[in-house]
Amino acid sequence: MEDRIAAYITRTREKALEQARAVDRQIRNGEKISPLAGIPVAVKDNICTDGILTTAASRMLAGFVPPYSATVVKRLEAAGATLPGKTNLDEFAMGSSTENSAFFTTRNPWDTGRVPGGSSGGSAAAVACGEAVCALGSDTGGSIRLPASFCGVIGFKPTYGAVSRYGLIAFASSLDQIGPFSRDVTDCALLLNAICGHDPLDSTSARFDVPDFTRFLVNDIRGMKIGVPEEYMAEGINSGVREVVVKAIALLESLGASVEYTNLPHTEYALSTYYLIAPAEASSNLARYDGVRYGFRAAKTSDVMDMFMKTRSQGFGAEVKRRIMLGTYALSAGYYDAYYLKALKVRTLIKEDFDRAFEKYDLLVSPVSPTTAFRCGEKTGDPLEMYLSDICTISLNLAGIPGMSIPCGFVEGMPVGLQLMGKHFDEGTLLRAAYTFEQNSDYHRAFPVL
Amino acid sequence: MVTREDVEHVALLGRLELTEEEKEIYTRQLNDILGHFQALQRLDTGNIQPTAHVLPLKNVYREDWVGQHMPREDALANCPDRDENYFKVPKIV
Questions:
Q1: Domains, chain B
Q2: Catalytic residue at A143?
């Protein structure tokens, strides 16, 4: 299976078996075990694991073995989950197809000629083809939801601040958030129970009352007020995808939700806003890769400046360099106000669109992506074309709200994801809607035939 | 309009050494991408406050306590070159 999908950068079979034996011992001793005990949860390779290679799919970190684990990894270990391996991604999580991995491209289990989506493509593919029961990914502009949609699994991006980012290799710190992949909504709730909550090691982690997310697994959405933003159903959305999403919305309505079309008027500015803010933050975050304390260092350099320049030029791939260039440009003297500051102001307008919509609606729904999974190589030549894959997902990161992709049908054999969007820290409403949809449909039971 | 000189300047700021081919590609692509982003200039944002991040957090304080620290060998384990307990780099001047 792995020969054909290539979901993992590193497999940790021995570690998983050792963890599983520990759970077996607990069961034999009659100890109480957690619902995740013994469950294989794969982890995206930009999340640090103590003593286990963590590369962010970059040559820059090709040999990096972290001396500590991310808070989410510690929490999964505490819950007894086992680690089958570290999954492939676009280099430093920059991309929408996993083709920017410095090592290899992961394949979509539904059609191995197509991409799994990105950047958490390895995690989505591993869960889709049964190489892991669940997985963790990270989502800066759609990097959990897009691959979940392309691979026909559930992907959840929690509210910004709901999950600690400590030990997540930083891409764009005001947008990054870790979240789970699973095959059903119940597992998604169990993983959220394990990973959500305040962490003193992440100063942007929020203090909030973490509920037991399983109490939202209720098959009832009667009276739920759902808005459908027209901008997310407009031209540019593939007609087959739109048809499937319209049918899914009709199902939610038939189950007792009230559905209305609404507007998020600044949607057309989201892509530009995102692709200024995210590269600006990335250019700053990636300044740390200088060949001094860890990671790759170029050979044969004349002085320290030459070493910095050669190390970074040889260590980073084309998309990462492009974003460093774009971000550095947007932050540089003379352009800061016109680009970066302008983008931060438009971000306010985008967030206010959501604030207004959530005065009227409990939930917003839309497609996750304008198309189903595209062919490998189809969009690698044109960065803007690739960026457009994120058009329906990026606004949520700018606004910091939770978002979820759930399987809602197929177009020519390829899965389509329905995006659920909610208020800050209202993960519960998303889970309830997703659970109700799941209990009244069969899409999540479909498996790819390999 | 991003010129080739702009690209060379920004590459230096970002500590990237670009090949002639890369300079050409990035000049073209930055123009394409930033040209697309010109749409933002249509919006009047005169009185709008910028949003750097979405949480209602200002300063975050905590108690200053003595915790467990990473052993020195662990902290040095990934470095490309060292001299005893120091990170070693090529000559600076």
A1: 4-41 (1.10.20)
A2: yes
Question: pLDDT tens for residues A37-69?
Answer: 999 999 999 999 999 999 999 999 999 999 999
Tell me which chain B residues have a C-beta less than 8 angstroms from the C-beta of A268.
39
C-alpha to C-alpha distance for B46 and A363, rounded to whole angstroms: 31
pLDDT single digits (tens) A366-410: 999 999 999 999 999 888 888 889 999 999 999 999 999 999 999
Nearest by CB to B78, which of A65, A328, A343?
A65
Report chain A residues whose CB lies below 8 A from the CB of B16. 309, 312-313, 316, 321, 324-325
Q: CB–CB of A316/A288 below 8 Å?
A: no
pTM of the model: 0.97
- AA letter at A209: D
In this predicted structure, the answer to whether residue B56 has a pLDDT above a threshold of 90 is no
Domains along chain A with CATH numbers:
2-269+345-445 (3.90.1300.10)
Q: Which of residues 33-72 of A touch B (CB under 8 A)?
A: 63-65, 67-68
Averaged pLDDT, A289-313: 97
The ipTM assigned to this model is 0.95
Q: Do B50 and A272 touch (CB under 8 A)?
A: no
Q: Do the bridges between strand A258-262 and strand A225-229 make them parallel or antiparallel, or are there none, so unpaired?
A: parallel
Instruction: Select which of A69, A96, A119, A164 is catalytic.
Output: A119
